[in-house]
Amino acid sequence: MGLRAGNHPDDICQLTARDLIRRFASGELSPVDVAMAALGRAVQINSLFNAFTVIDREGALVAARASQDRWRRGEPLSAIDGVPTTIKDIVQCNGLDVRYGSRVTPDISDRPDAPSVRNLREAGAVIIGLTVTPEFGWKAVTDNRKDGITRNPWNPARTPGGSSGGAAVAAATGAGVLHLGTDGGGSIRIPASFTGIVGHKPSFGRVAAFPASSFGTVAHIGPMARTVEDAVAMLNVMGGRDLRDWTQPPTGFTEATAKPINWSGKKIAYWKTPCVGGVERAVGDAVETVLDDLSLAGADVTQVRLPDQDALLEIFYRHWYVGAANRLSAVDPADHAVIDPGFLKAAELGMRYSAVERMQAEIQRAQFGARMDALLEEYDYLISPSVPICPFDAGQDVPHRTGLESWVEWSSFSFPINLSQQPACSLPCGSSPDGLPIGMQIVGARGDDGAVLSAGLTYEQMYPERFLLPGGHWPEFGAEAT
To answer: Cα–Cα–Cα angle for 186, 440, 466, nearest 5°?
Structure first.
């Protein structure tokens, strides 16, 4: 594929937010320099992997110049002021043409920023563009009839996962530092796993959602980045209370802080078996190697099954498919012919559930959530693979010759945690025999994102070679961006 673009010692696109802030303060780099580099990288990788729906050069440079002026005055707005950032094409972003990956949605560029986007702007983030999602974010791979297929930078024949696949590709290739994703059944954690980055699904409500998702309270908004520290910085900026989001807890959340922990005495529940199917050997071996090391470090690891595990697939279907039907109800029937047939089928299945069946699923979900809260009282962390399989062919919803019928089935390490609303972070933990990333998921108690991110930070310090850090191993994707 050419030169390893992210492995050049002078490549500013691989610097972390912390690196950038330090260099902005010293005057070694300016936000305009960095924005130009990120925009150039975005154009370069978009032609190869189709990560962006919009690259906003003009808007980004206006924001970067304003940030540059603040840094020169010594008055930055935050610890991410001037840092290149992307927004998933499913979250309102004033001035940009957010289309939810669809050809049937209206232009909403005149609508106000979503709370998370507003918070990022107010902290000085430089938004460089919108990233690709499947139509309405309905599935765990990234392709749609409007934008085409998004490809994995480690192997363009493979999928980067989804639905935040464009954001993951942008992160993995250095087209921005901070990336806003959404996660209704694994849509942050799955592409994080498939592309070798960090993806954090926060405790539900930590990041306000407005307008509300058509898929209800399984949908979360969270950060994607190349390091845990950057994900923490982004989460603390984008989170916070917004009175337009009634589903948020009224007491709010304290700031999430990540600091190294001692594994000695920590009780870890190892969730080894997904709700559907099995685990590819390379995935299981990678996660168990980490668990062996944590055991040697003094952690007590116990294999578990989730409470009500055999019922969770149907509980999730009754939430997700009814959500798809809800979303479709806002679309003119005359436009159905140009919508993703898979989404139409999901919506049709959702329409078949009765109101009683949907409410029964809500009650079952509450029971499961309470049992998960109890499990995370007994154990400090729940650890599992992020995804039971390795990245498969791009353009497919399910891998060939597996017998699986839907994306939900192969994402069954992720969707249960959307039902129970605990924080969960995907971290790179190894590679498949053909060099594709494998991710490990760390789950913690509801509300305690800091504990999960502290575990992630400590893990990152144990295995720095697995992360996309300056000078480390990056995907090969052509010549240097300028």
So the answer is: 120
Contact 450, 256 (CB under 8 A): yes
pLDDT in tens, 368-391: 999 999 999 999 999 999 999 999
Q: Which residues contact 94 (CB under 8 A, 6 or more apart)?
A: 109, 110, 111, 112, 113, 117
In angstroms, rounded to a whole number, what is the distance separating the alpha carbons of residues 457 and 446? 19
| All domains of the chain in start order, with CATH | 5-310+357-466 (3.90.1300.10)
- Residue 242 burial (C-beta neighbours within 10 Å; 0-12, 13-18, 19+): middle
Which residue, 241, 250, 247, 214, is CA-closest to 115?
241
Cβ-based neighbours of 352, under 8 Å, separated by 6 or more:
none
pTM for the model stands at 0.97
Contacts of 428 (CB under 8 A, 6+ apart): 193, 196, 197, 198, 437, 438, 439, 440, 466, 467, 468
Q: What is the pLDDT of residues 221-254, one digit of tens each?
A: 999 999 999 999 999 999 999 999 999 999 879 9
Give Cα separations from 340 to 146, 148, 269, 336 (angstroms): 10, 11, 39, 8
